[in-house]
Records
---
Amino acid sequence: FEAAMRGSMQEGTKSGMPNEFDYMLVMSNMSQYCRAGEVDYSTVELFYTNADKPWSQLTKNGCHLRPDDLLNYFNGALKVVLLEADVWRKTKLVFLGVKEMKVGCTLKIMYNGRLYKAMTISIDLVPCVSLEYSDAIPVRDFDRQFPADFSTCRFYALLQNSQRFFRISYTDFDAVLLELLPSKAKDAYVVAKALRSPYAFHLYAEKEICPIDSEVLPSSYDLKESRFKAELDRQSLTTDVDVHQIPTHEWVQMIFN
C-alpha cells in the first residue's frame, strides 16, 4: 500500500481537535493490472488483466475482481498486523480497537503527548485501486462547470461489500477544485462545519441566530459539495464583484443556502 492522507486534515480544513484522520491505501502494484469495465453512476466494475500475479485467486470467471472478497482479505490481514504488540511498543499510541466499515476499517487509538492527554483518535483506512483519468469513467456534473484542468487527476475504486462494483472516489478532483476557491471560502467551510456540530447548533438555535433552517443537520459531505456549488452560484450572480472582497460570513450563508 501507498498511504495518502485525505479529508480535512490534508486540506487544512479540520474543525475541532486533531482526532480524525483519513488515509487512502492505494494498492499501486495491483492497480497497474486493473482496467475499468461497466460504470454505474458512482460505481465501477474492475477486471484484473494478469493471471500470473497473486491476486488472480480473488477474481471471478478468470478476471473479474470481487470487491467484497478483496475487502475481507484486507480487513483480515490488517487485524493480524494491528494486534501485534511490537507495532505499538515504541510509540505514544495505545491500540483501542479496529472496526470494519463499508469501504475499509476505522482504527481507534489513544494518544498521550505534551498538549493532548488521553485523546482518542479515529483513523479511517480505505484500501483502493488507482485508475487513470479517462472518458470511461464520467466526472461529476459540477466538475464540468469549473475552468479546471483535471488531466493529472486519478479515479480511485474503493473496496466495498459488493460482489461486482467498486465505489468511485473523486478525491483528486476535489483537491483541484479546492485550489480554485478563495481563502475566505475555505475559511467559511470550516466555520460551516463548526456550526453544524451538535454543540454549536443547539447554542445558536436557542438564540435564533443559527444560519441552518432545517431541523436535520447537513452532513460534512453535504457541506463539502456545497462549498463548490456556492462558488458556481457566485459566478453566475456576481461576476463583476471581486471574489476576494466577499466576507467570510457571506460565504457561510451561501454554503448553507
Note: Helices lie at 7-11, 28-31, 67-82, 171-180, 183-195, 198-206, 220-237, 248-256.
---
Amino acid sequence: RIQQVLTWNIIGYKRDLINQALTLAALSFLFAFFHSFGGYAEGIADWEGIKESAVINVIMIAVLFILNASNILFTTRTRNEFVNFMMLPATHAEKFCSNFIFQTVIRFVCMIASIMLADALQAIISLIITHDAYSLTLATANVLYKNMTGLEGLQNIAGALGLHSTFILGGCFFRKRQTLFTLLAWIGIPLLIAIVVGFVGYGVVSLADKLNYSITVEIIPEWEKYADIAGTVINVPWATLCYWLSYRIFRRLQFINNRFFN
C-alpha cells in the first residue's frame, strides 16, 4: 500500500514537484550561462565555467535536500489535507514511508531531471555560439562522485545522513516554520552545550588553582582525523534515533495540535 499512497502523493502534489523542478532548472541554466559567458564571448565552450556551475548545482541540491526533509509533513499542512491523508487506507508506517520516499527519492529524481533539462538548454546555446559544448550533467555527477567516494566520501555521506535525519525530526516535531526552527535548534543546542562545557571547564580550572593543583591539556596528534572518524561513527546511531523519533511523532499526530509543536 506504500505504492498506492505514494501515487496519491505524486498526483496530489505534482504541481509542487513541477514548480521546484522548474525553479532548479532555471537557476542551474542561469548559473551555467553566466559562468560560461566569458567563453561565449571568445567563441569557445568554457569547461571551467561548467565545473563552477556544477559545484553550485550540488550546493542547490543539498539545500533542497534539507528543505524537503523538513517538509516531511507536507500532506498535513491544512485541516482538509490532514483529514484526507489520515483517511487513506494505509497504516501509519506506510504513510510515513510514502512521505519519506516522496521527499527524498522522488524529489531527488526530479532534481536530476532538472539538471538534465538545464544541461540541454545550455548545450544548445553553446553549440549555436561556439559549435562545441560540455555536459553540465556529467560535471555535476563528477562533483557528487568525488564527494561520495573514499574515506572523505564516507564521512560526507554519514554527515548528510545525520543532517537529513535531524531535519526530518524537526519537520515532524515543529508545527510551523519547520526549516527555520530546526535550523535554529541545530545551531543553538550545540552552541549552548559548548557554552555550558566552557563554563564547567573554567570552573574546574579555577577550583584546581585554588587547591594548588595543575591541569594540563595534551592535544593528540592528528586529532582532526580522529574527530572526523568519531563524527562518522556517531552520525549513524544519531540518524537512526532521529528517524525512529520522527516516526513516533508521526504516529501520534492529532487533528488538533499545539500551535508550535506536534
Note: The longest helix spans residues 92-130.
